[in-house]
Amino acid sequence: MRVFKTLIIIMILVTIYVQPIESIGDKEVKMIRVDGVIDGGYADLIVRQLSLVEEGEPVIIYLRTNGGYLKPTQDIVTSILNTDANVTIFIPRGGFAFSAGAYIALSSDTLAMAPGSSIGSAEPRDLSGQVDPKVKNAMSSWIVSIAEARGRNSTLAEKMVTENLNLPAEKAIQYNIADLLVQDLDQLLEVLGIDEYNLVMVDKDIRSQLLSMLTDPLLLGIFINIAALLILLELFNPTYIGMVVAAALLILSFLGLGVIGADTTALALLLIGAFAIVMETWVGEGELAVAGAIMSILGIFLLYRGEMFIWTFNQRLLVIGGLIILGIGVSFFGYYIHKIRETLMMRESPVGKHVIIGREGVVKKDIKPGEPGIIFVDGEYWTASSDTYIPVGSRVRVVDIDGLTARVEPIDED
Question: Can you give the pLDDT at residue 378?
């Protein structure tokens, strides 16, 4: 039952993060909200959303960011440049598209900025704040190619990388970096001719939030160190649970480092989870089943990419109900496996304790009436009792088994 209780707690915590999507009416336009660090979660969200849009369909990306990581930025820019949708990026009043945000903004079909917004400061830096000249040159070339692909001012775009140039909305319009100057979102919809459409607000869903968490460098460092410690402990004190957890942490670390993708990670977690649940048949007291269930749930979250299932339904109860059904199924399966293990453990072995009845052994500790001693028989030590005193070194025969105590009688050695 511990498995079931643990899963219920996990599901309650997970559903807190379910972000409903608001939409009504027939004609709709998606607005993907990007407000924070550009990471693997935002990259996954944008790539998934754009992959589902039909040719020519308008999509708005609400962008406000101080920057982010290179690989997610590359994924987002590539997706925007290659999509059949018409992508408009909107930087709101008081907003900013700095660093990674500048590359993303320049890749859009239409870049709209509100008064008080700004774009620029795209010089690449590593986590320690240092600038690698080779990376800087590569990124300046890349931003130029992005600007040229969209017919924008490539000279000023390059200066955003080489000189950390910043441009307010008015200057960005004046120098052909941005396309539209709008007061707010309502005016943008009107200018684009889609003001009669219903706006579908798309925020990070569970999958994207999970990926954002897993691509955090600090968390990745913690995962790798914990995995290394668990592996070290396994070498001195082998247990299945430590190795299973270490394997899962390493898989998640590979995902965060960009070595493997989300789908590969999902498959690996499902396999590890299934292995952990099956191993509960032979070892553990429920911990492996709990770990296996958790990994299976994480794998399923990462596996589902389709918008027709968990990520975009407006009804939160549907999501909660699906998770509960899944959790109950996994927990009962784990509990069933645990009961199978208990049954197997209770099954009498062909070399069990009753086999020693009639066997002879040697007393290793005096046996006195009412005070058990110890005998050595068939390569094992047993607690032994007798109605007579039998000293150390005497040979005895096992006549019965009472629980874990052997009833013995002395052998006449004459």
Answer: 82
Here the tokens at position 326 are: 């899944």
- Regions of the chain with pLDDT less than 70: 1-26, 127-128, 238-239, 280-287, 303-354, 413-414
Domains 22-202 and 353-410 share a fold: no
Q: How far apart are CA 354 and CA 400, in angstroms?
A: 8
Structure tokens that stand for 237 in this block = 């004190």
Rounded to whole angstroms, the Cα distance separating 86 from 56 reads 5
Q: Which pLDDT belongs to residue 334? A: 59
pLDDT for residue 204: 87
What CATH number has the domain spanning 353-410? Answer: 2.40.50.140
- Could you give the C-alpha distances from 232 to 183, 236, 243, 272, 282, in angstroms and in order? 59, 7, 10, 20, 23
Which pLDDT belongs to residue 73? 93
**Beta carbons of 258 and 220 less than 8 angstroms apart:** no
The reported pLDDT for the residue numbered 152 is 96
Q: What is the 3-state secondary structure (H, E, C) of the chain?
A: CHHHHHHHHHHHHHHCCCCCCCCCCCCEEEEEEEECCECHHHHHHHHHHHHCCCCCCEEEEEEEECCECHHHHHHHHHHHHHCCCEEEEEECCCCEEECHHHHHHHCCCEEEECCCCEEECCCCCCCCCCCCHHHHHHHHHHHHHHHHHCCCCHHHHHHHHHCCCEEEHHHHHHCCCCCEECCCHHHHHHHHCCCCCEEEEECCCHHHHHHHHHCCHHHHHHHHHHHHHHHHHHHHCCCHHHHHHHHHHHHHHHHHCCCCCHHHHHHHHHHHHHHHHHHCCCCCCCHHHHHHHHHHHHHHHHHCCCCCCCCCCCCHHHHHHHHHHHHHHHHHHHHHHHHHHHHHHHCCCCCCHHHHCCCEEEEEECEECCECEEEEECCEEEEEECCCCECCCCEEEEEEEECCEEEEEECCCC
Per-domain residue ranges for the chain?
Answer: 22-202, 211-346, 353-410
The fold for domain 22-202 equals: 2-enoyl-CoA Hydratase; Chain A, domain 1 (3.90.226)
CA–CA gap between residue 302 and residue 265 (Å, rounded): 8
